[in-house]
Amino acid sequence: MHCSQNPPAEIRQRLSAIRTFLLDLDGTVYLGEQLFPWSLEFLARLQRLGKEFIFVTNNSSQNARYYVAKLARLGVAARPEQIFTSGEATIYYLRKHRFGQEICCIGTPALEEEFREAGFVLTPRQPAAVVLGFDLTLTYEKVRLACDLVRNGVPFIATHPDLNCPTPEGPIPDCGAMASLITAATGVTPKVIGKPNPEMVEALCAKFGLEPESVAMVGDRLYTDIAMGRQAGITTILVLSGETQPQDLAESPHQPDLIADHLGKIAKWLD
In this predicted model, what pLDDT tens digit does every residue of 182-196 receive, in sequence order? Predict the structure, then answer.
């Protein structure tokens, strides 16, 4: 259903039960370095209604401080605790499953810093896990080290499955492509944490004490944002301001609960 007109009463009622909105960033709140004109109105509406919002991203090459600074440049005030990355979800997963504090992190300096601040010791010597992120500093030596460890039975975890990361110059290889390289060399498939996997929502709910029935995921990708929300049992809202086009819905197994042209339309529903 493409909700291009005012939604019926049951949709308004459904949204009234939502206390926390999980918001994808690129394609939902902004596009590249351009804030969508309706984003500030939407966020202000949530604040007036006493509802919370958390920005959720698969990009593990940057930490929360980076996104706070980027949002500030675009005119959006956000606190570090309102940013949740796949790196932070991976930290929750490692702690929940008691992997131990020593890990081998194949990632950017920002991701390494995030793990150190969480109390992990980064080491190539007998680590409890190999954690692969979106590594813009990837080298052959890092790949060789990861393959040696994984081949010898060290658990292999990837922060997220994206094959490509969009940039203004075009797509560049992302974490999923890097994981495929290690898998091809070792025959081992990683445990993947980020969207579309429900571990991301589980970690969020645990961190913030959220009840799934009061949470909604808002995003522009069917196979990540909507797929994750459906698997996690939360309300899903697709916005058509980014990647997904209306014709993509016909062939997708991941169907949202609601569809809006953009965040500004959702703001009107909440009015």
Answer: 999 999 999 999 999
What is the average pLDDT score of the chain?
93
pLDDT digits (tens, 9 = 90+) for 50-100: 999 999 999 999 999 999 999 999 999 999 999 999 999 999 999 999 999
Asked whether residue 73 is domain-assigned, the answer is no
Q: How far apart are CA 125 and CA 194, in angstroms?
A: 26
Looking at the annotation, which residues are catalytic? 24, 26
Nearest to 219 by CA among 233, 229, 209, 205: 229
Euclidean distance between CA atoms 106 and 136, whole angstroms? 10
Query: Per residue, what are the HEC states of 4-29?
Result: CCCCCHHHHHHHHCCCEEEECCECCC
- Contacts for 10 with CB less than 8 Å, ≥ 6 apart: none
- Known binding residue 271? Answer is no
Enclosing domain of residue 173: 99-192
220 annotated binding-site participant: yes
Annotated ligand binding at 174? The verdict is: no
Q: Tell me: is residue 26 an annotated ligand-binding position.
A: yes
- How many distinct structural domains can be found in the chain? 2
